[in-house]
Amino acid sequence: MTKVTLTVNGRSMSGQAEGRTLLSSFLREELGLTGTHVGCDTSQCGACVVHVDGQAVKSCTVLAQDVEGANVTTIEGMANADGSLNTLQQAFQDHHGLQCGFCTPGMVMAASSLLAENPKPTEAEVRHYLEGNICRCTGYHNIVKAVMAASGQDVSDTVAAE
Amino acid sequence: MYNFDFVKPASVEDAVAALSGDEAQPLSGGMTLLPSMKQRLNAPATLVSLTGIDALKGVCRDGDMLVIGAATPHAVVARDAAADYPALAELAGQIGDPMVRNRGTIGGSLANNDPSACYPAAALASGATIVTDKREIAAEEFFQGMFATALDEGEIITSVKFPIPQKAAYAKFAQPASRFALTGAFVAQYADGARVAITGASENGVFRWSEAETALSSNFSADALNGLAASADQMIGDLHGTPEYRAHLVGVMTRRAVGAAH
Ligand SMILES: Cc1cc2nc3c(=O)[nH]c(=O)nc-3n(C[C@H](O)[C@H](O)[C@H](O)COP(=O)(O)OP(=O)(O)OC[C@H]3O[C@@H](n4cnc5c(N)ncnc54)[C@H](O)[C@@H]3O)c2cc1C
Ligand code: FES
Ligand code: FES
User: Fold this and answer.
1) Are B180 and B156 in the same domain?
2) Does B191 share its domain with B103?
3) ipTM, 2 decimals?
4) What is the pLDDT of residues B215-232, one digit of tens each?
5) Smallest Cα distance from B208 to chain A, Å
6) pTM for the full model?
7) Does A26 touch chain B (CB under 8 A)?
8) Residue of chain A nearest B31, judged by CA positions
9) What is the residue range of B58's domain?
10) Is A66 in contact with A117 (CB distance < 8 Å)?
């Protein structure tokens, strides 16, 4: 076991990791941050997406020891300082961008990277960027709508099941 | 996955030294290696991470060559190669999804030589040179069939040198579930002729389509390919497509790439 220290959501946090300990397991089991979900564990579904030094990665395919010292943001770090949902999270709620919610942490983390790179994406750009995030419930339409709304674009005439 | 020792050297020398140990293997982006270790298809005793070695990262222009460090992630190539070699940057920007592109690296992709991977097509069509800690290997000699390369045990790729073509393009027919190439064609025009490399199609991995190269070298246009058909012999057949289907795609994707070349 080796000690791994990360800055998670602005706080320095440490835990023990074996060589094979994945960042997803380290966050969930060592640090108790269970908002990061593990859907497939095979790098396909994107439920485990977190930001490492500002970049979206699939935490089930990153070794904890390989990111020693990194700045990590998880879904627990996305809310506003007063605990209320941030604009993107609120848009998921307002536009029914989730049903069971399993994919949602990864969707929010991936979508927030998109908006950081491209603050006013087209619908096609949103769909393309979220290619690595799988949702088994919503059919994606309202996820895309939520991301468009969070970017400040008018979504009032998008046809969606509400 | 079975447990292993993890080391993260800061220099190529230290990485090579660590790799001389028993059953040690390099880890770059981990996007291929970690899933295969989870399936217990691979169980190294030591993983030597290359992600802490700055000398293995970055894209730089050197005369008429573009030199890319082996541990440079796809997303960085997509951004930093765009001005000098746009077709290569576009290829990198189409690999997997944004999260895969933030971690996966060119060195890992070439070393793995997946028969459906994108970079091998660019390297072969560009006549790239694979630079390792010991020597320089021409792309032609480097790729030795599905998942096989000229790399020796413990040898690591340090960079890849791409001669910059006059124009080029990559056309990929993505397998919709994996996003790898069901068949992809990379076409590049150089002063001394055109080169065409096909990925995703052959049981022998990436290959040059020499008939198309001859036709395009005298007339670089999609019309020059009229009447040319790749043979279905030794093409991959699986639930996503028959050998005949892939052979047909070879022609379609090559035409598209020629049409898109810039
Ligand atoms: C969901 C998903 C979608 C993908 N889609 C595509 C796609 O569309 N097209 C595509 O081409 N690829 C695709 N990939 C594969 C991806 O590009 C990988 O990043 C790449 O194949 C391996 O690179 P890596 O840096 O992750 O290597 P790793 O997984 O770290 O290593 C792969 C192999 O190479 C060896 N190795 C790594 N670096 C070196 C080096 N410098 N020298 C010698 N050996 C080395 C390792 O020991 C290992 O055997 C996808 C992967 C995923 C998970
Ligand atoms: S749990 Fe990591 S991609 Fe599915
Ligand atoms: S809301 Fe259930 S998987 Fe997306």
Assistant:
1) no
2) no
3) 0.96
4) 999 999 999 999 999 999
5) 30
6) 0.97
7) no
8) A61
9) 54-163
10) no
